[in-house]
Amino acid sequence: MPLAVAPSDFALVIRALAQAGFAGCNVTIPHKEAAFAICDRVLEPAHRAGAVNTLSFGNGIEGTNTDGYGFIANLRAHGVNPAAGPALILGAGGAARAIAAASLNRSPSVHQLWARASRSVLPFAPEVIYGAMSFSHAVADR
Q1: Most buried residue, 26, 35, 43, 115, by most Cβ within 10 Å?
Q2: Which residues pair with 117 in a beta bridge?
Q3: Is 20 a catalytic residue?
Q4: What are the residues whose beta carbons fall under 8 Å from the beta carbon of 69, sequence distance 6 or more?
């Protein structure tokens, strides 16, 4: 059941869902970092990504991130070996960081995470090369 939730109401709505008996929920932009903050427990995939996209309600609120797992599973479903080579990830949001973390678990190859603004590229793993570029120039040069 999709819910349109204003960022200012996020914590209130999540606690209300838990109290109403929901087992959990999926969270998307712009709430992934707020979801991280509201958790009583955060699992390792979410810690590595710095963002939560899946909340479970039981004894408190538990958060994890399944973006990386889903990306890796999709690559495999299409015959791509995630450990076959280096990865270039464009973007530095919660999903991009989760994909980079999941990729690092499967391949020692060099990984690069690039975003439009250097301030949005927050290093979370020393194995990743970080950078910033203007996507408008990259598209214009095609």
Answers
A1: 35
A2: none
A3: no
A4: 45, 102
Q: What is the C-alpha to C-alpha distance for residues 115 and 96, in angstroms, rounded to an integer?
A: 10
**pLDDT tens profile 83-127:** 787 777 877 777 887 887 787 766 656 566 666 655 555 555 544
d(CA 14, CA 9): 9
* Rounded distance between C-alpha atoms, residue 66 and residue 74, angstroms: 12
The DSSP bridge partners found for residue 69 are none
Dihedral of CA atoms 41, 111, 105, 56 in degrees, nearest 10, equals 30
- What's the pTM value of the predicted model, to 2 decimals? 0.75
Token match 């958790």: residue? 39
Judge contact between 121 and 132, C-beta under 8 A: yes
Which of 17, 18, 32, 101 is the catalytic position? 32
Q: Which of 79, 70, 135 is nearest to 101 (CA)?
A: 70
Contact 45, 4 (CB under 8 A): no
